[in-house]
Structure formats: structure tokens, C-alpha cells
Design goal:
single chain; 167 residues; alpha+beta; Immunoglobulin-like; 4-stranded antiparallel beta sheet; 2 helices; globular
């Protein structure tokens, strides 16, 4: 069941245990495969020269997904995740929580016109953060304002290890 703060128009929906049709975690393998295919195309375009695996992966990922800067801070009673999401409104962002993982997803469509034709393009955000402890939606909140998404995840007494961000 999605949770959101209704009092602010800048609130972002946090969804815990999403249903199968709304589960963005299920897209993880799809995105991984898309990036791998594009990275392999870079490798082939370069004449199959070895040694550029990481560069090919980063180039492919940045071509398909919008890169976002991320900061994770720890306070006495919570973890605060801040992400730069310029150009995205709160309505275009979604947070999903599942066990030890938090997913930030954003989809933005823009119209591009050239010689009488209009083309819609999209460069989504898909950022997965894995924590070393279970996270719960209870008491979690998220807001987006001025290109910054801030997600607050309350701590339980057992949580003492800091999280690690992954791509």
C-alpha cells in the first residue's frame, strides 16, 4: 500500500512491497541487460579491443539513464538520503522499499520538435540503494523541492551499520 504525505504538494510517494504490476525492482534485470547490450555495442564499435569494460559500461548507462548524485547521511534517529533530481517534480518521482533495498525511480517525458515533427523522449532515473539492514516504510517520508529529493528513513534500535550505495 503506497504511503505519502498529503499535506505537501512536494511529497513523493513511498511504496512498500509493491504489487507485481507496480514493482520497479522487477525491472533491475531488464535495465542491467539493456546497459550490457549497449556496452557490448561500444566494445564492437571499437573493434573488439579489450580493456575498456568499465568505460563502456559507464557510457552505456549514462546514455540510457539519467545519472543522479546521491548522499546518505546518518542522524541519531534516521538515515537521510539526498539525491539531485533536477527537472523532476515530486509527481514524476517514486520511491519503493523492499527489505534492505530502496529504489528511486523517475520518469520525465519531453517533447522535441524538428521540422514539423514532434518526438517524445525520456531519460529515466533508476537508482538502487542497498542497505545492510532492513528498512521499513513506517515513518518514512520523501519530499522533492528545487531539484533535490530527500528521503528520511527512521532507524530502529538495532541499526548501527551505515548503508552502501550501489548502481
Amino acid at each position: 500500500m503506497p504511503e505519502s504525505i498529503e499535506s505537501s504538494t512536494k511529497s513523493v510517494t513511498i511504496m512498500a512491497q509493491p504489487s507485481a504490476e507496480n514493482n520497479l525492482f522487477a525491472q533491475e534485470d531488464i535495465w542491467h541487460n539493456k546497459i550490457a547490450e549497449r556496452a557490448f555495442a561500444y566494445y564492437q564499435d571499437r573493434g573488439s579491443v579489450d580493456g575498456y569494460d568499465w568505460a563502456d559500461w559507464v557510457a552505456a548507462e549514462s546514455e540510457l539513464l539519467k545519472s543522479i548524485a546521491l548522499e546518505i547521511r546518518e542522524s541519531e534517529d534516521s538515515y537521510i538520503v539526498s539525491a539531485e533530481v533536477p527537472g523532476f517534480s515530486a509527481k514524476e518521482l517514486e520511491i519503493q522499499l523492499d527489505g534492505t533495498r530502496m529504489l528511486i525511480h523517475g520518469a520525465k517525458f519531453s517533447d522535441q520538435s524538428t521540422e514539423g515533427a514532434t518526438e517524445r523522449t525520456s531519460k529515466p532515473i533508476y537508482r538502487l540503494i542497498e542497505f545492510s539492514f532492513p528498512i521499513a516504510a513506517d515513518g518514512s517520508r520523501a519530499q522533492a523541492e528545487d531539484g533535490i529529493l530527500q528521503v528520511t528513513l527512521p532507524k530502529s534500535k538495532e541499526q548501527s551499520v551505515s548503508p552502501a550505495a550501489t548502481d
